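Re: weekly structure request thread

Next one in the queue (460 aa):
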Amino acid sequence: MSKPAKVKSAFRCTECGWETTKWVGRCGECQAWGSVAEAAAPTLRAAASPVTTPAVPIGQVSVEDSTFRTSGVPELDRVLGGGLVPGAAILLAGEPGVGKSTLLLEVAAQTARVRTRTLYVTGEESASQVRLRADRTGGVHDELFLAAETDLGAVLTHIEQVRPTLLVIDSVQTIGASGIEGVPGGVTQVKEVAAALVRVAKTRNITTVIVGHVTKDGSIAGPRVLEHLVDVVLHFEGDRNSRFRMVRAMKNRFGPIDEVGCFDLSSEGIRAVTDPTGLFVEHHSSQVPGTCVAVTMEGRRPMLAEVQALVTPSLLERPRRTTSGIDGSRVAMILAVLQQHAGIRLHQHDVFASTVGGARITEPAADLAIAVAIASSTSGAAPPKGIVAMGEIGLAGELRRVRDLPQRLAEAARLGFRMAIVPSEPGAPESPRGRNVDGMHVLDVSTVFSALQAVQVLKR
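Done, posted below.
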């Protein structure tokens, strides 16, 4: 007589749902510590049940109820792919004090202006505090309803009574559900509250915007399933020392994920910045050594950013390498390439590199502009006025092509730049005399040494 098979207990991560047959202290998927716990054994088997709506051919499904509706904030519509979609669940995450509540209050006010009922639920502030901000930013309207609640049941009751078209929850970490284990903001609570809000959004065709907190490393706090439940995940970024803010789409089921929106946050509220390039470029009256303008792509939008470098003799055994707005490891690699392939010796010099206006450059296309700024500061020779440089630098000193080059050149020409240094096509010869593209004089070079020679920033 055969023995019954031994049932193995399963362990599941409460953060991401990863499963294992034995207990471990650290999740093998999301690397969270202390999140693996024994999962309850299933006691019921799924059985067939009545369907809510019958299945129909996909061509017969109506799309009229899922058309875009403007949020009243053009830059946010750009990131969302056209506007707010009825029934969509949107998660907006960002650091404390970056302006999430101010942005969503402006969206709620703009929606209420077109006679669309909006419900703003705050769990972090009192109703009077939100009213003060609305008075300051001009967001008081009859169709904008405000409630201060931290209980999920009360929030659902408000939704039943108000019947809004747009629902804003600020924030999901402050809402708790009775009968669910854990405190508000815990893994179980956040997952259940978010699932309930998304379910209401889908069944009642309500556009729901949920505010989420972030951890110290910038990732969204709470279980990873939270990002899977919603349709759109937006990150609100910005430097505390600057008024400039950016909204970046990390997930979007209704549009592209390579778009960004630019905003200006002030005491009067938040407003869209449709042309942010001028914030990151200084207009010098004369040629200045140690500066160069790069053209980067934020999503599908070209943006110009000025890079500044300062090279000074060092008395330290290990010279300093200080950066602001630029990746320090990228600058270290560029310094090594300049020493090896351009003959610029910087092992006894302090190097400081930064961007203007609080811009953050992460794209490799800015490598050439950084190299020109460093070489210019070292030699004391200023690059020609009205020049931009773009190109990725390889370890062999070669320049690699960058994407969307025509759009970058067109944006630089629109802002008055008349000369550009770009990488040449693979296998194509360099053009020492240059060529004209949209009124710009474009020089095609293949190496970083040729680029520095073309802008005359090398020591003679």
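Residues 66-274 form a domain with the Rossmann fold fold (CATH 3.40.50.300). The chain has three domains: 9-40, 66-274, 279-454.
Next request, please.
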